[in-house]
Specification:
Order of helices and strands: HEEEH
Shape: elongated
Distance between the termini: 16 Å
Protein name: MAE-28990/MAE-18760-like HEPN domain-containing protein
Organism: Gynuella sunshinyii YC6258
Number of helices: 2
Mean pLDDT: 92
Number of strands: 3
Strand order of the largest sheet: 1-2-3
Number of domains: 1
Structural class: alpha+beta
Largest sheet: 3 strands, antiparallel
């Protein structure tokens, strides 16, 4: 894989791991005037608004990571 693709894949995988940690260790709070907020700690207290925009971005990011990892695995198998 090219260096830029590897850097992007690492950055996107870091997002997925960060979200995983936030959900695993955070606290889900229902806001009376909207939706849900995930409160978590990652180098300081943080909040994550769980709205359609977040879930669309999460799905897009995860799909990108799966495609890139599949491509990497396939390219390694072909080189055998």
């Amino acid at each position: 894989m090219e260096t830029d693709r590897i850097k992007k894949l690492k950055a996107e995988l870091n997002k997925v791991m960060s979200w995983r940690n936030a959900f695993a260790h955070g606290k889900l709070v229902h806001e009376h005037n909207g939706g849900f907020i995930l409160e978590y700690y990652s180098g300081g207290s943080k909040d994550l608004l769980l709205d359609n925009r977040f879930f669309d971005k999460a799905e897009e990011t995860i799909r990108y990571c799966v495609r890139e990892c599949d491509s990497l695995i396939l390219s390694r198998l072909i080189k055998r």
